Amino acid sequence: MRYKIFIFDVDGVFTDGGLYYLGTHESGRKFNVRDGLGIRLLQQTSIVPVIVTGKETDAVTERMKVLKITNVYQGVRDKLFTVQEIMKELDANFDEVIFMGDDWNDMPVLEKVECAITVPAASQEIKEVCDYVTTTQGGYGAVREAIEWVLKKENLYEEAAKSFVAYLQKNNE
Predict the structure, then answer these.
(1) What is the rounded CA–CA span in Å between residue 12 and residue 9?
(2) Exposed site from 21, 100, 106, 163, fewest CB < 10 Å?
(3) How far apart are CA 28 and CA 31, in angstroms?
(4) Residue 42 resides in a domain
(5) Neighbour count for residue 132 (Cβ, 10 Å)
(6) Which of 42, 44, 19, 22 is nearest to 30 (CA)?
(7) End-to-end alpha carbon distance in the chain
(8) What is the number of domains present in the chain?
(9) For 138-156, what is each residue's pLDDT tens digit?
(10) Is 132 helix (H, G, I), strand (E, B) or coil?
């Protein structure tokens, strides 16, 4: 298999980029259930999901716990440096990395990885360096769409879907 790691930004990718001020020190975020199911599908393969985001929030921590994503890096200022450290830790190179981001702080990584993905709301300059632009906006299932696109492209989709359905059936018995 070509890819080892699928790295995701959060704001604008897992979310619509909006911030919900709750009257506390924390702002809220809305996540889409379809993206969560996409992550579960990805987890049926050997590709490791990783989160690298510029902000640090309890909402992201809690969502990623629910999704069982253990490689979560928040408060990251230099995403390229962090991605390089992740690659060392997981024994991967840029040719084995997929990155999904949507803004200027993602550009250094998007330009280096083998497979770069973004969302329709990204600027034209971001879209131009990406291999795939989802048709779905961030926060509305774009993560799921990107995962399905990669898995189909790599001929992993059918096996991952069968494995996921079997997992669901086993846990509903």
Answers:
(1) 8
(2) 21
(3) 10
(4) yes
(5) 17
(6) 19
(7) 33
(8) 1
(9) 999 999 999 999 999 999 9
(10) strand
Chain mean pLDDT for the chain: 93
The letter for the amino acid at 125 is E
Q: Is 145 helix (H, G, I), strand (E, B) or coil?
A: helix
Residue 51: in which H helix or E strand, if any? strand 48-52
- In this structure, what CATH number is given to the domain that contains residue 144? 3.40.50.1000
Residue 71 — φ and ψ, nearest 5°? -95, 90
Please say whether the beta carbons of 3 and 48 come within 8 A: no
In a domain, 61, yes or no: yes
Assigned domain for 173 exists: no
Retrieve residue 76's tokens: 């990251």
Residues 96 and 71: their CA atoms lie apart, in Å, by 16
Tell me the whole-structure pTM to 2 decimals: 0.93
Query: What pairing do the DSSP bridges indicate for beta strands 97-100 and 5-8?
Result: parallel
Please name every residue paired with 49 in a beta bridge, in sequence order, or none if there are none: 6
Percentage of residues in the chain having pLDDT higher than 90: 81
Cross-strand pairs, 6: 49, 98
Instruction: Go through the chain and tell me how many residues it has.
Output: 173
Which residue's structure tokens are 């440096």?
Answer: 81
The domain in which residue 113 lies consists of 5-167
In 56-160, at which residue ranges do the beta strands (DSSP E only) sit? 71-73, 97-100, 115-118, 132-133
CA atoms in the 13 A half-sphere facing the CB of 39: 22
